[in-house]
Structure formats: structure tokens, C-alpha cells
Amino acid sequence: MEIDDIAEIIPAGTAAAATGAARKVFIKTYGCQMNVYDSQRMSDALAADGYAATETIDDADLVLLNTCHIREKAAEKVYSELGRLRQLKAERAEAGREMIVGVTGCVAQAEGREIIRRASAVDLVVGPQTYHRLPEVVKKARGGQKVVETEYALEDKFEHLPQPRKAEVARRGVTAFLTVQEGCDKFCTFCVVPYTRGSEVSRSVAQIVTEAERLAEAGVREVTLLGQNVNAWHGEGADGKEWGLGRLLYRLAEIPGIARLRYTTSHPRDMDDELISAHRDLRALMPYLHLPVQSGSDRILKAMNRRHTAVDYLKLIDRIRAARPDIAMSGDFIVGFPGETDADFEATMEIVRQTNYASAYTFKYSPRPGTPGADMDGHVEEKVKDERLQRLQKLITEQQHAFADGLVGQTISTLIEKPGRQPGQIVGRSPWLQPVIVDEKAGEIGDIVDVRITKTGTNSLFAEAV
Ligand code: 5AD
Ligand code: SF4
């Protein structure tokens, strides 16, 4: 599963003025890319019901917080935002204007009705499995009810959600997310996902292909397949056979217009031969793989219920690199899991040295109520966690810089994505997800062009057209 800890706040909105619709919705997204995708789909569902999206909270009649529950800090952020919204709602009430406040996402699923008890501003709580019911829930809330909708729906929500709107897809840009799988059956002992997102469900091949074609028709060049455990995706193919993610990627690579494919986040246990072969065969499949290992200590991996050892992981990476030598690795690490000793942590440092990451995310262990890890003995002191996190981050930053420095002087392919901050510049994306800043003469938005890297910035590359 992929969650970048930046807890990016991304309004899923559009220029509401363009539609002149009466009601407006503001969606604030916390957490992972799956939430970014969900916010877009909620926005599509509400648009069908007459709500235009806005990026300004002051314009909004409906405010939705699409939340993340992965670490304690992420959940706390939601409650402090709800405090601010209470104030805003009170001001609105005085002015005689309606403001409906809703909580969606994983905090909604995990805490349900408790949210309404704790935060009086909240009118509706909707879990990730029932977004297709959002328009109906909003109607009830407008009628004065407090609505909580967190049951796992029997119906397939994707069948009931409207397709992404073409104009909206085009506005969102030339890269897009596409959720193919939700939930997780792995039950790592630190993780809330199996509880908040439920057990693994794969979308059908037909649904995925139709959505990808629609994205391509709207001008999307790069599609990132999403899933909490995306490489566990499986489904029945057009040939009546059971497909895995590898086979699906071969199929998606045939869609005209789709030039780049990615997928995230994967579990090492679910990297099968066909998926590794896809990395060898498909030029469209970008040579960048987010494959979290979490720890380098077998003792801790066992306590985490990861069901693989450090050596299993390293051997797997050897196989992937043999198939695609230019692949760059990314990962997630947790420091300070209960019982982690200095020696365990050194094993984590060692696996990082051996793998050599192009980037990686590091987290301090955060006990999540209801997960087995929270009840384990040997919780690690905050100070120790801080020290370990710093050392690990330093090593990963060094590797990340070394990887970027190694690209200087090389010619690489870049997907042009958007105008740059400085006039005359445009920003593209490298095969390894780095922003590439280049002269606007290099190409138009949506083009994939070769550029020569001239120098590196903090988190980006500078390039010249070739
Ligand atoms: N504490 C700290 N980090 C966590 N992650 C998941 N649960 C926790 C937790 N309780 C991290 C894992 C996962 C990433 C998305 O978040 O590294 O891969
Ligand atoms: Fe959480 Fe583990 Fe499932 Fe990833 S594989 S979502 S870390 S339980």
C-alpha cells in the first residue's frame, strides 16, 4: 500500500464558475493516492447531482474531509480541521447560509458515529465502501439528519459510481490514477488497512479497461494503477482465464495513447513471475517500483507478520533487476516497532545499503488501536524512534541524491505535464517520478520527449531539450 506521509492536501475541485451550478462542494484530501482517486470519483458522483467542485472553502455549501487513519497524526489532523470548520459553520449559520460538513475515508470507517459525538459540526460520515451513496446521504443531511454510512455495501460501488467525466479528466492533466484493487488480507500487525478498507477486492478486467480507455481518450498518457495491495489484483480475463496484475498490464499497454504505466503499492509476497516478465517486456511499464519491506530484521519482520525474510526480499529484487536492469527501487520503512533493538535497526540500515533506493518513505511506528502491534510488549521510546528515524532518513537521502546525480549528463525520456513556475519553463516527469524542469521549447503538455539532464535540484532535475 502506498501512502506518502506528506499528507498532501489536494482540492479535488474544478473552476466552479465554469458550470455556474447552484451548489458547490469542497473536498480536502488527506493521505494516500487512493484517497486522491476517491475524492475525484466523489466529485464526479456529486457533479451528476448538481454539485460543482470548488477550490475555495468559503464558496462551499458542502465540505468533505476525505481522511486518513494510517498513523495517529493523520487522524488528529482531521479533528483539528473539524474544530476550525465548526467556527466557519457557526458564522455561516448567523449569515443564514447552509454548510454541510462530511467526513469520508478511513477515519470515517474506523470511528463512525464517534466522529459526530466528538465533532458537532459533522453532518455525515461515509466510509470508503459506500461512496456511490453519497448524493443520497447528502440529501438526507440537507434535510437535517445526521447520517452515518459505514456498512460494507453488498453492491459493487464502482458499478454505481459514474464514469470519470472527460472534461474533468482532461483538466486534471496527462497523468491519472486508476484504482484496480481495494482492501488487504495481509494483516501486518502495525496496519489498520485490513480493518478500515476491508478484505481484498479486485475490480473486473472489463471495468478497468473501459476506464483506462476513457482516460486515454481524454488525453491521459500515464496511468498509475492503485491498490492497497495492488499486485494481489486478479480477475477473469477476456480469454476466460484467471489474470494477475502482470497480464493486466500487458493488456493495458495495448490501449492507444497510454504510453506509461505504473502500479502501487505492492507486497513482496505477491510479485509473481508474470509481473516480473512484464517489467522485462513492456516499455510502457516504468522502471520504478515501490516495494515496501518495512524492516531489515527477520525477528521484526516476523513480529510484523510480513511473511517474508530480509533475504527473500533481496533475492526478489535481484530477480526484478535481472529482468529490468534500469529499475529504480522505492520502499517504506517503519522504525521503532515494538521490540526493535539496536541490532534490529542496524539490520534495517543494512538492507537499505544493499538495496540502494532511488527514494523511500520512513515512518516512526504509531500504535493503532485494534491492531495486534498496539498490544505488544516492548514499545520503543520516542527519543530512540527519533534517533533511528534521523539516521535512516539520512542514509536514504544520500541514496536518493546519488541516484539523481547519476542522471546528470544522461538523456532521458520525460512526459511533459504542466507549465513551470518560471516563465518559459515547463515541468515534466522522469521515468523515476522526479519532476524535470526544462525549457518550454522541449515540447507540449502530453508529449514524451528526450531531454538531457544538466543538474539536480533538491527534489527535481533540470534538463535541456535535445
Ligand atoms: N505506524 C507507522 N507507519 C505505518 N505504516 C502503516 N501503518 C503504520 C503504523 N502503524 C506505514 C507502512 C506502510 C505505509 C503506507 O505506512 O510503512 O507501508
Ligand atoms: Fe497494511 Fe500490510 Fe496490507 Fe500493506 S500489506 S495494507 S502494510 S496490512
Question: How is the secondary structure organized here?
Answer:
Blueprint: E1 23-29, H1 33-47, E2 51-53, E3 62-67, H2 72-94, E4 100-104, H3 105-111, H4 113-118, E5 124-126, H5 134-142, E6 147-149, H6 157-160, H7 166-172, E7 175-179, E8 181-182, H8 193-196, E9 201-202, H9 205-217, E10 222-226, E11 234-236, E12 242-244, H10 245-252, E13 260-264, H11 273-281, E14 288-290, H12 298-303, H13 310-323, E15 328-335, H14 342-355, E16 359-364, H15 382-405, E17 411-419, E18 425-429, E19 435-439, E20 448-456, E21 461-465
Parallel strand pairs: 1-2, 1-3, 3-4, 4-5, 5-6, 7-10, 10-13, 14-15, 15-16, 19-21
Antiparallel strand pairs: 8-9, 11-12, 17-18, 17-20, 18-19, 20-21
Helix pairs in contact: 10-11, 14-15
The protein binds 5'-deoxyadenosine and iron/sulfur cluster (SF4).
